Amino acid sequence: MLNFYLNENLQKIKANILSACSRANRNPDEIILLGVTKTIEPQIINEAINLGIFNIGESRVQEFNSKYPILDKKANLHFIGKLQTNKVKYIVDKVSLIHSVDSLNLANEINKRARMINKKVNILLQINISKEPTKNGIFVEEVDEFIKQIPNFSNLNLQGLMTIAPFVENPQENREYFKNMKKIFVDIKSKNKDNINMKYISMGMSNDYEVAIEEGANIIRIGNALFKSTK
Ligand SMILES: *Cc1c(COP(=O)(O)O)cnc(C)c1O
Questions:
Q1: What are phi and psi of 164, to 5 degrees?
Q2: pLDDT by residue (tens digit) across 115-169?
Q3: Alpha-carbon gap, residue 161 to 185, rounded angstroms
Q4: CA dist., res. 197 & res. 205, Å (int)
Q5: Ligand 1 and 36: CB distance under 6 A
Q6: Which member of 56, 107, 181, 217 lies 3.0 to 4.6 Å from 212 by CB, making a disulfide possible if both were Cys?
Q7: 202 CB less than 6 Å from ligand 1?
Q8: Residue 139 phi, psi dihedral angles, 5° rounding
Q9: pTM for the predicted model, two decimal places
Q10: Who's near 178: CB < 8 A, 6+ residues apart?
């Protein structure tokens, strides 16, 4: 069951990553291409993994869990969707990184569940950088308070930031948001606190990943551009 479009799409994305990196003077090896696989069949996901996409992102707990037994475990599995506190227990033992931590309450629950299984769980703080009412994430003004509490959560490892930029016709419109994310990232990194090891800026999707890379993203989350057949 070979999907020739998958490899074709991948080669196009890789070429775009290369040119964005060369425009921004960045090393393309720093960029993690996360395949976003909501609604995609596990067999197709495994094909993507075989093509070298070793980071896979799911956004619904139930879907994640039903695919989990089938997915090739040589990939890192990320959780990127809205996470209810009462569902943390179903994924905490399976994920390599949770991108969508958007409250202290959720951070507290992940910490508690992580402690019960004796694990340190990697998380990103999701920021609603554009303040769109339909988007999850904390506002920039709330970041300091969140960061202040992380040293209390000894089973968490805060590794960076995530945002979902607005859906826009022209991706250049999101450039300022991506720039702001980078600033916040650098600011937190300079603080040197316990349980905080800033490594990742997860931003940029099918529509705007090249601009995101130019502004400092090192995880781009790609769904449609990878998995959608253009035929
Ligand atoms: C669906 C989704 C993506 C991928 O979006 P595309 O436009 O298909 O690339 C990225 N991040 C999150 C959080 C998503 O839910």
A1: -115, 115
A2: 999 999 999 999 999 999 999 999 999 999 999 999 999 999 999 999 999 999 9
A3: 7
A4: 24
A5: yes
A6: 217
A7: no
A8: -80, 155
A9: 0.97
A10: 165, 203, 204, 211, 212, 214, 215, 216, 217
Q: Is 195 left (phi over 0), alpha (psi -120 to 50) or beta?
A: left
- Distance (Å, whole) CA 123 – CA 220: 16
Name the residue with the closest Cα to ligand 1, atom 12: 80
Nearest CA owner, ligand 1 atom 11: 221
Give the per-residue pLDDT at 4. 77
Are the C-beta atoms of residues 229 and 10 closer than 8 Å to each other?
no
The token pair at 231 is 């035929």
Residue 86: what residue type?
Answer: N
In the numeric block, which tokens belong to residue 86? 């009462």
If one residue of 9, 33, 36 were mutated to test the ligand 1 pocket, choosing by the most ligand atoms within 8 A of its CB, it would be 36
